[in-house]
Amino acid sequence: MTDLRVLHPTWRTWLRALCSLGLCLAATAHAAQAPITSLQRSLDAAFSQHALDIQGWQTEHGSQVLYVPNLRLPMFDLQVVVGGSFHDDGLTGLAQLTAGLIDKGSVSRSAAALALTLDDNAAQFGVVAGPQNTVFKVRGLSHTAQREAIVEVIADMLGNPAFAPDAMAKEKVRLLNLDKAREQSAAARATAQLFAHVFAGHPYAQTRAAHPETLQGITVEQVRDFHQRLYSAGNSVIVIVGNVTREEAHQMAAQISAALPPGPAAAAFAVPPASEPEIYHLEHPGTQTVLTVAVPSVPRRHPDNAALMLANEILGGSGINNRLMQELRTRRGLTYGAASQLRQMPQAGIWGLQLSVAPQYRDATLALVETLLQRYAEHGPTEQELDDAKRKLHGQMLRSSVSNVDIADQLRTLGFHQLPMSYYQTLLAELHAVTLDELKVVLKKHLDSHRLVQVSAGPSVEQRPLREPALVDAAP
């Protein structure tokens, strides 16, 4: 055996480095063969330590309330969830118009007075008006005087909006400008076409915030009727997170619920009928073509939801190591980014992916994506991919249980989708329990290439074959 002491110092350094490298490689190989063990236990312990103390009840007027105490900061986050654009009933823009007028003045206060009260009490207010629901978000100090003033003005704002004609006229102009901007987005147009096809004849087909043909004709009476039906106490979810006691949370929720119009929850939508596969091309100016490929999917309550979350993470989830990014960006340089997503409504869902490519590679890229999906459905992921996906989703769930805002968003999901308060703890166990064989079965069941809907939006140009991929390892 060579004596290190008789070697030149430089050689001794290199030999020690090589020995260390060998030990590191051996340790790495051993770790790669091991299942999720110590890391999983650490994540499990962290998640258990930060398990949310979710409490729920229904107010006297029928509002569903979800509450989590968080005493670390003297603040609270409040969300009030009501109906969204899926309830427009053919009057595209009605939900957005109603939401946009809520902070434009109440029966007893002007818009300036509402804003001044919130500002004087250091409160932040915002509205997120989407297809599924409209969410009013408030963040404020939990000190009694400030909290009570904030809740009082929010209750007045939501329960007694003025819907003044001059404010409505200005809001219509704003929404029309937003719609014009949306029509200039190839991605937005492709997504709208996807939903219009998959959910044809169903309220889920409507994703457009406003439309000139209907928005201009919407009257004050129609806005008031929408507010009466979709902002009713029985159709609302109230979320409270922060440094407030349960008794204080009860008082806050009761005050807001009592201010809302009386009425029941809106009737649940029917399950959409099955859609047929289709290929669309939307002519759109630009230097890129947006490609959207999707299959109909399932709601969150479906028994296969946990497995589908893992399958989506492997296909095109977070980071750059998913299959889409490895094949389409790393190997072929076709796009800067490619991602897949599960979009889930209470009665159905869509599992799709989206990316942008040079217009001349539109057809060839769509063919490649279809081949990738077929291969993924047929062979499934590797054990390593499944383990990595479990780690990522576990970490994401842990991070989403830290800040008040993230916790409130979780509670809103529970309330809107009518999920049990134990949903996230149960979901965590279900994610860890999914085996490779089970995931392969779910993939063959839900990722059916014969049901693909393909939408491209971009300029029409002469099509070319793809270039040869880079000389790196192929995607599994």
From TrEMBL:
Residues 79-207 form the Peptidase M16 N-terminal domain. Transmembrane segments: none annotated. The lineage of its organism: Bacteria, Pseudomonadati, Pseudomonadota, Gammaproteobacteria, Pseudomonadales. It comes from the Bacteria. Pfam families: Peptidase_M16 (PF00675), Peptidase_M16_C (PF05193). Residues 1-31 form the signal peptide. InterPro entries: Metalloenz_LuxS/M16 (IPR011249), MPP/UQCRC_Complex (IPR050361), Pept_M16_N (IPR011765), Peptidase_M16_C (IPR007863). Residues 218-393 form the Peptidase M16 C-terminal domain. PANTHER family: METALLOPROTEASE (PTHR11851), PROCESSING PROTEASE (PTHR11851:SF224). Keywords: Signal. GO terms for molecular function: metal ion binding. This is Insulinase family protein. Gene3D superfamilies: Metalloenzyme, LuxS/M16 peptidase-like.
